[in-house]
Amino acid sequence: MSTLIKLPEGSVCWPVAALSSAAQDIRHAQTHLHHPRAGDRSIGGVTRWERCYADVSAWVEWDWVEIGEGTVVQVDPLNVRSNVLLLDERGRPLLSSRRRATLATLVYLLPWQGPVLDRIRLGEPSRRVAAAARPASRGLNA
Q1: In angstroms, rounded to a whole number, what is the distance separating the alpha carbons of residues 10 and 22?
Q2: Residue 137, pLDDT score
Q3: Residue 12: its pLDDT value, please?
Q4: Which comes out higher in pLDDT, residue 66 or 129?
Q5: Predicted TM-score (pTM) of this structure
Q6: What is the torsional sign of CA 80, 85, 91, 96?
Q7: Where would you tag: which of 82, 87, 107, 140 has the fewest CB atoms within 10 A of its CB?
Q8: 10 Å Cβ neighbour count for 70?
């Protein structure tokens, strides 16, 4: 019986032990907006973060929704899509449930809300006008 795992092209193997250091190297790649339907004011979308290697990119992406102006959350924290195969300390793939929880933890560690909110502001003309009209916030020592 073969113990080889056949991965889809472009997949990347990541040891779980290296996840916290890998999280420091992951960068925002893109955010797409899903514009609301008529009568619906909520905005949602997909954001993708990547870590580039010599010849391939490891990526994670997830759906998000704005629940109030300036507040975005994941639609389903356990539904993170990725081309990463997470490996345990013995080099074996994680079970699906542990993989979902581990990717959810990775997303929790990323500062993803800022780039998403920036994209919302750039993509919604009414938000740009409103943001420009607000007075600049002052620091505590001002």
Answers
A1: 18
A2: 45
A3: 85
A4: 66
A5: 0.78
A6: positive
A7: 140
A8: 12
Identity of the residue numbered 133: A
Phi-psi region of 24 (alpha: psi -120 to 50; beta: other; left: phi over 0): alpha
Q: Report the distance separating Cα 62 and Cα 104, nearest Å.
A: 10
Q: How far apart are CA 45 and CA 65, in angstroms?
A: 6
Q: Identify the residue with better confidence: 30 or 9.
A: 30
DSSP assignments along 54-119, one per residue:
SS-EEEEEEEEEEEETTEEEES-TT--EESEEEE-TTSPBPPHHHHHHHHHHHHHHS--HHHHHHH
CA torsion sign for 66, 81, 20, 102 is: positive
Q: Which two tokens stand for residue 38?
A: 């008529």
